[in-house]
């Protein structure tokens, strides 16, 4: 196992750790029946009836799974 020859300073440690940042997810805008929705790309979306109850999952216009 590799062992550092010298102790790394707090400033260097924190500078290295500060480079890890969370990225904002890329959203896809879709408009259906005048309603705008934003969703993640390559994810199945939930299809709901007029009352708002979930029916099934849909991906690329095809039924993927029941809920």
From TrEMBL:
Residues 1-19 have a biased composition (Basic residues). GO terms for biological process: translation. The keyword Ribosomal protein applies. The keyword Protein biosynthesis does not apply. GO terms for cellular component: large ribosomal subunit. Keywords: Ribonucleoprotein, Ribosomal protein. InterPro entries: Ribosomal_bL32, Ribosomal_zn-bd. Residues 1-20 are annotated as: Disordered. Pfam families: Ribosomal_L32p (PF01783). SUPFAM superfamilies: Zn-binding ribosomal proteins. GO terms for molecular function: structural constituent of ribosome. HAMAP family: Ribosomal_bL32. NCBIfam families: rpmF_bact. Belongs to the bacterial ribosomal protein bL32 family. This is Large ribosomal subunit protein bL32.
